[in-house]
């Protein structure tokens, strides 16, 4: 371990006004290409999701289960919304375990962290389009 200097995030702008944070789930350490083969794990987390704050849900007219498209400067994904207090404001959370419609790699830029040389998974700006407010209709 070693100390690193703070790097200011690339940030959002008027068009790409939401910030994506991504990470792992307890049940799916990697993309799900192995863990989705386990019936017990799949039952606990049957699909990937986009966590949004109650404030953002109210502002954008979203509900639990709404389908949205997120678009960055490099690509787009679509997925279901989960409204939760676990994220705030214009922050979104997407797990890393989907390798299909919600694969976060499609959103990330080619920039890498200066210290670890890993993709900038924690620094992705996106815009959101509502595709379906009521997923069962």
Oligomerization status of the protein chains: single chain
Could you tell me the CATH topology label. Barwin-like endoglucanases
Average pLDDT, all residues: 83
Query: How are the strands of the biggest sheet laid out side by side?
Result: 2-4-3-6-1-5
- In terms of structural class, how would the helical and strand content be classed? mainly beta
H and E string:
EHEHEEEE
Spans of 5+ residues with little confidence (pLDDT < 50)? Answer: none
* End-to-end separation: 51 Å
Write down the CATH class.
Answer: Mainly Beta
| Number of E strands | 6
What does the secondary structure layout of this molecule look like, with pairings?
Blueprint lengths: L17 E6 L15 H6 L4 E4 L1 H7 L6 E5 L4 E8 L7 E5 L28 E9 L5
Parallel strand pairs: 1-5, 2-4
Antiparallel strand pairs: 1-6, 3-4, 3-6
Task: Describe the 3D structure.
This protein is mainly β and 137 residues long. The protein has one domain (18-132): Barwin-like endoglucanases (Beta Barrel), CATH 2.40.40.20. Helices cover 9% and strands 27% of the residues. The protein has helices at residues 39-44, 54-60, and strands at residues 18-23, 49-52, 67-71, 76-83, 91-95, 124-132. The protein has a 6-stranded mixed β-sheet. The relative contact order is 0.28. The model has no long low-confidence stretch (mean pLDDT 83).
Label this structure with key terms:
single chain; 137 residues; mainly beta; Barwin-like endoglucanases
């Amino acid at each position: 371990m070693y100390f690193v200097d703070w790097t200011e995030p690339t940030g959002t702008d008027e068009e790409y006004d939401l910030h994506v944070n991504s990470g792992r789930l307890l049940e799916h350490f990697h993309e799900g290409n192995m863990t989705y083969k386990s019936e017990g794990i799949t039952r606990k987390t049957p699909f990937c999701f986009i966590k949004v704050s109650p404030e953002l849900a109210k502002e954008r007219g979203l509900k639990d289960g709404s389908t949205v498209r997120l678009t960055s400067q490099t690509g787009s994904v679509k997925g279901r919304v989960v409204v939760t207090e676990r994220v705030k404001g214009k922050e979104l959370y997407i797990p890393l375990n989907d390798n299909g419609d919600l694969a976060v790699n499609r959103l990330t830029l080619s920039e890498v962290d200066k210290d670890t040389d890993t993709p900038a998974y924690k620094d992705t700006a996106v815009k959101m389009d509502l595709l379906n407010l009521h997923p069962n209709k």
